[in-house]
Amino acid sequence: MSASYAAIKVEIAGHIATVTLDNPKQRNPFTAEFKQDMLTLCRDMQARDDIDVMIITGRDGVFSAGGDLRSLNNMDGRTTTGDRRRIYQIHEWFQTLLNLEMPVIAAVDGAAYGGGFGLALAADFVLASERARFCSVFGRIGLVPDVGVMATLPRVVGLQKAKELVFSSRPVFADEAQTLGITMATYPAEDLLPAAQALAARLRLASRDAIGAAKVILNQSFNLDAKALLEMEAAAQAVMMGSTYHKDAVRAFLDKQPLPFDWERFDRAEKAAE
User: Fold this and answer.
1) Ranges of the chain with pLDDT below 50
2) In angstroms, rounded to a whole number, what is the distance separating the alpha carbons of residues 116 and 134?
3) Which CATH number fits domain 208-273: 3.40.50.970, 3.40.50.720, 3.40.30.20, 1.10.12.10?
4) pTM of the model
5) pLDDT value of position 1
6) For residue 78, what pLDDT is reported?
7) Which residue, 158, 12, 147, 19, is CA-closest to 93?
């Protein structure tokens, strides 16, 4: 990586970027350094063409506890307008992450509280360990959710359940999180990162451009009417039909050759290896 980071670690292998939140002793708080790292990371990932999938995870049984309460406790010199600007700074990297034109997988082991919950919800797929727990904890200290929780959570669990989770500030443990659709699957802690890597290894064989375009459109599916979405669909499809990936895949199909991206074939190979 050309960029350097203070609060995260980034490793790249096989066109997959694994981003590890790297301050577990303090529960990976959203410090100024972390927020700058995330802004730099998201801009870098969006600009690169050698990364096809990104995994976000923690280490030592910690995902993220969200906001840095030490900084929140320091009232000297703080103003309402300054606090608003700080939230906008979070939104800058959050919106880039939410719409990053590649699959993003969150592998959550331990607590994803407050902003950490919002970070997980910004991913396309959330995998959890059996000891994972999620909480919109803001209400306990008289705040409203941030890091996009009020946009992402209702889309995942529905409006009524989102209100219940936000108003109560109660934790959601791994089993319930999967039932609610917050997570896609649950694993023993030692199997979590390998599962995320296996999912990423499959997804990287797809067309990043096609997935990226589909993601941008799907992310607008609750905001735009059908006509606007159909126009976006038509424009994206016209572009993808001219792509090298599409032309090569069609040629392989007509020549009765295996397609590079075939989920059923992946499943069969995985079962055969068991």
Assistant:
1) 1
2) 8
3) 1.10.12.10
4) 0.95
5) 45
6) 77
7) 147
